[in-house]
Amino acid sequence: MKITVRFAAGHDLPALLALYGELNPDDSDLPRETAEIVWKHIASQEGRTVLIAETEDAVLGTADCLVMPNLTRGGRGILFVENVVVAGAGRRRGVGRHLLEAAVRLGEEAGCYKVQLLAADDAYVHTFYAACGFEPLAQGFRRYIERET
What we know:
20% of the residues are buried. The chain is globular. With 149 residues, the chain is of the alpha+beta class. It contains 4 helices and 5 strands, in the order βααβββαβα. The protein has helices spanning 13-23, 32-44, 95-109, 123-131; strands at residues 4-7, 48-54, 59-68, 78-86, 114-117.
């Protein structure tokens, strides 16, 4: 299976939404109009790249990458990776590895000193990231913000 990784474009929005549905199956569907507005913001954000992994006939994965400028480390930025998703049909076929290799290349090209991501608290996910060269070097913290209704 030949896997290609490229930058996402507006026409990829339905495929991205389907992948995000696999990532967070309990989320309600995002209305198309809202998704298009959000996509326009993402696409225009400097340093932001959404990657798509695909074969000839299917989009099988995505990763959302953001270069954050930085005043430490000699001014070298940090590449953050979020919303890494591989469709069920693409798992254990190299799709995730291709996405992360492409993300690391983005960081290298941007002169970043590190690539950082948070992982779900699942052993198989940690094993995957370690196999891709990532190390669990820090303690992560989150504080979710409740949505007012």
